[in-house]
Amino acid sequence: MTLASILIQLLNGLAAAASLFLVSAGLSLIFGVTRIVNFAHGSLYMLGLYGTYSLIQFFGRTPLGFWGAVVLAALAVGLVGILIEVLVLRRIYRAPELFQLLATFAVVLVIKDIALFTWGAEDLVGPRAPGLSTAVEIMGRRIPAYDLLLIAIGPVVLALLWLLLTRTRWGALVRAATQDREMVGALGVDQAKLFTSVFFVGSVLAGLGGALQIPREPANLELDLAIIADAFVVTVVGGLGSIGGAFLAAIIIGVAKAFCIGIGTVTWFGFEVSFSKLTLVVEFLIMALVLVVRPYGLLGKPQAAQRATEPAPRLQVPSWTFALVWLALLALVPLAADRYTTILLTDIVCFALFSVSLHFIMGPAGMVSFGHAAYFGIGAYAAGLLMKRFGLPMEAALLLAPLVAGLFAIVYGWFCVRLSGVYLAMLTLAFAQISWSVVFQWDSMTGGSNGVFGVWPSAWLADKTTYYYLALVLCGAGIVFLWRVLFSPFGYALRAGRDSPLRAEAIGIDLRGFQWAAFVLVGALAGLAGAVYAFSKGSISPSSISIAQSTDGLIMVLLGGVETLTGPVVGAAIFTWLRDVVARNTEFWRAVMGGVILLIVLLFPQGLVGGLKVLVARWREQRA
Amino acid sequence: MSQAILQVEGLHKAFGGVQAVADVSFAVSAGEMLALIGPNGAGKSTCFNMLNGQLTPDSGIVRLEGRDIVGLRPRVIWRLGVGRTFQITATFASLSVRENVQMALYSHAGRLRSLLSRFGAAFGREADALLDQVGMLDQAERTCGVLAYGDLKRVELAIALANQPRLLLMDEPTAGMAPKERVALMELTARLARARNIAVLFTEHDMDVVFTQADRIIVLDRGVLIAGGTPPEVRANPNVRAVYLGSAH
User: Does residue A461 form part of some domain?
Assistant: First the structure.
């Protein structure tokens, strides 16, 4: 590389870092004060792009029209942020943290469909910035003037935020709340107002980040989850709650990506290394590296202590009669139901195991995973590829696939158990995204974006009812096995470690070892769910390993209720069934699902099964 | 004098430029209650955390029954026979009182790795015996998360006794308890320690507890040991009076 091309890539990277920084700073600010991992933050960014596009059409393509649109769109997104805070999140601040996460998933679904309804499914290419559409010549290369402006905007916003945080009373409150939210509340600060204002500022930053991107990338419906993954990475690399850290991390990641594109394909020692393919992975590699060396990010501090958290409730052992009655009912259904219902039930059974395995790791083991689809997807791909590419019989592929998923869980888990809390969750997401991009780009092996086709079961299993029984036996056995493990000494040790890592270590428990083993166990079982699912569909697509698949799992667990054993199964059944019913009737099934989830979140803050238990208990009290 | 269970020689620890603990040496014998006292910031907690594996000393020797334990992890030190209670109680809040003690017993027996047996099927009687000794048997079924603070302290003591320790490290064992409960807990501890021949090292702010329950007292001030001896000796020591009451001039 020449000096000139290095400089160009550097400038490209810095320009890309600007929006990344704005979005991440907003996310970091909101998380710091409210402790909510706001998955809808990416949706706000997406709205920023769409809003600017429409406003420019309205105002006309003049400099005033363009910049007026950018500012107005950002402010409008800020108002959307206020709406989300006041209508949804404020009502559930007292609910368990994970429930707030579920609510933000629902908001993601709703906003996606509002965007689909308003702007359609086509990508919308925005105009260049009027007056800045020229290029500036630097060392013989041409750089768009707009990029230079973006490079300047990053530090300007950083400086403004710094002034806001250090020189105003509001900033002092935000910094105090980031360190100790309860203390700020105890000092008589109106938390509701503080949270709303923080949501506004954070959302404006997300909206502005999106608005400024309109000349650089088309507005489309995939941006929400794509940018949220990037923003998570940036905030975690920089350190949660640290604005300066977000700036530093955005630059590192922006520049690293630009260089990967710039370098292209090079040959080292006879091997072709395609750096441009690394673009999708490089930020996650940086994140994994940083978290292993500095578990709280580059400029982050250990998470603030949280007092007086409710202890997790005791789990009740499900009775054998209960399990057997359900199994019998499920076994009888195909006798009465049509082919369609049988196929739907097969889906439900697969997702139930997926959901139970996720519950195992995030509930009793206390490690929330944002990337559980990694193991589901790897299981699915392993099953398909072992059969199609390596010529194994279907039965062997089905049984080996969980082992492959388990192998990946050994590697991923080794890193993940070194962290805890949100950092751990983000790292699981990173590994899932790395897996996704490898699958997505390795055309010759995985079929790339098309996926793998013709993954059908052997002849004796080809009948849908027969395959349903196979799925029921395998996934049912997996669920019963996981439940049993929960009540074994191993399962109790995990719960003990979740309750008090300090005490666990003080009575000789190698907690990391147990957590690592738990990771591998649930990875393998999620892999089994994926493999069974793959053969039931006959094809595998990269969506089986995507963020959306991971969040589906989280929704199932949280919908049913993380504090009960049967909750995840009920959640998987209702979610899968509801999605099927709604998707058959309307194009806007996401909005309907999101609405239903929001309703449940607001009515039953303990999840469906948890909420039912409370209702039953109240009813009994009244009768007694 | 009976054999020394814990021997500490020339312990040093500095944080940045601050010497938190300097050249501290002492020993605790089997069946002995040794109190480590000193004003706030004297280095008691630092000293403690170097004994239990939480911190590694800059220099010095810590011997448990003759074996050097510097640099070992807390869980390894526990396996060598050191039980601990914490200043702020640490128990498993979602498990019952009995299960808390059983957890320590399972861990001691190396039986936590089983995936399919039912937890709680073993060591029930042993756990109940320990709970009986600390007076918590009647609450064995209750969830730890709902217990009163004083009761949690007693559960911790039962957990700490589960691996038949040779040494008990108790950091502020009576912090947060009512005065009457404090003496009762330490009397119980002293009785159990003597009966089982366990060495006990504890830090404590309540001087009533210290002077009535400790066999010997050592006094730390600004990282340095300034006095040591029986309660009457320490009470009469001019250095101690200077530290606690202000110097005489």
Answer: yes
Predicted TM-score (pTM) of this structure: 0.88
% of residues, chain A, pLDDT over 70:
97
Check whether B229 has a pLDDT greater than 70: yes
Query: What CA–CA distance (Å, rounded) separates B179 from B173?
Result: 12
The minimal CB distance from B92 to the residues A490, A496, A505 is found for A496
pLDDT computed for residue B249 by the predictor: 42
- Averaged pLDDT score across all residues of chain A: 88
Domain that holds residue A112: 12-293
CA dihedral A517, A521, A527, A528 (to 10 degrees): 160
A287 shares its domain with A389: no
Give yes or no for A483 touching B (CB within 8 A).
Answer: no
Residues of chain B with pLDDT > 90, as a percent, come to 50
Same domain, A345 and A428: yes
Question: Is residue A66 located within the same domain as residue A156?
Answer: yes
Please tell me the distance from the alpha carbon of residue B239 to that of residue A430, in angstroms, as a whole number: 59
Cα dihedral sign, A253-A259-A265-A270? negative
Nearest CA in chain A to B105: A507
Whether A437 has a pLDDT exceeding 70, the answer reads: yes
At A308 the pLDDT is: 45
The greatest distance separating any two alpha carbons of chain B, rounded to the nearest whole angstrom, comes to: 70
ipTM of the complex in this document: 0.90
Measure CB to CB from residue A500 to each of B78, B91, B111 and give the nearest one. Answer: B91
CATH superfamily of B1-71+168-174+197-249: P-loop containing nucleotide triphosphate hydrolases (3.40.50.300)
Is there a single domain that holds both residue A226 and residue A98?
Answer: yes
- Best residue in B72, B103, B155 to probe A by mutation, most A CBs within 10 Å? B103
Percent of chain A with pLDDT over 90: 45
In a domain, A557, yes or no: no
- Please provide the distance, in angstroms rounded to a whole number, between the alpha carbons at the two ends of chain B: 39
Helix axes B124-133, B149-161, angle to 10 degrees: 120
Whether pLDDT at A609 is above 80:
no
The DSSP secondary structure of A357-375, one letter per residue, reads HHHHHHTTT----S-THHH
- How far A498 CA sits from the closest chain B CA (Å)? 8
**Considering only alpha carbons, which residue of chain B is nearest residue A510?**
B75
CB pairs under 8 A between A and B: 105
Q: Do A489 and B91 touch (CB under 8 A)?
A: no
Which of B48, B73, B75 should we substitute to test contact with A (largest number of A Cβ atoms within 10 Å)?
Answer: B75
Q: pLDDT tens across A202-260, in order? A: 999 999 999 999 998 899 998 988 898 889 889 989 988 888 999 999 999 999 988 88
Amino acid at B145: G
What does the pLDDT look like over B97-137, one tens digit per residue?
Answer: 999 999 999 999 999 998 988 898 889 999 999 999 998 99
Q: How far is A86 from chain B (nearest CA, A)?
A: 33
CATH number at residue A217: 1.10.3470
The answer to whether B75 contacts A503, with C-beta atoms less than 8 Å apart, is no
Q: Identify all chain B residues contacting A487, using CB atoms and an 8 Å cutoff.
A: 118-119
Does A218 fall in a domain? yes
Measured between CB atoms, which of A310, A490, A500 is closest to B115? A490
B116/A488 CB distance under 8 A: yes
Token code pair at residue A23: 């979005």
Q: Please, where are the H alpha helices in chain B?
A: 44-51, 74-79, 97-109, 124-133, 149-161, 179-196, 207-213, 231-236, 238-245
Domain range annotation of chain B? 1-71+168-174+197-249, 82-164
CA dist A227 and A20 (Å) reads 8
pLDDT band at B247 (very low <50, low <70, confident <90, very high): low
Contact between A500 and B116 using a beta-carbon 8 Å cutoff = no
Asked if A485 is an interface residue toward chain B (Cβ–Cβ < 8 A), one would say yes
How close is the nearest chain A Cα to the Cα of B176, in Å?
16
For the domain made up of B82-164, the CATH class stated in words is alpha beta
Total domains present in chain A: 2
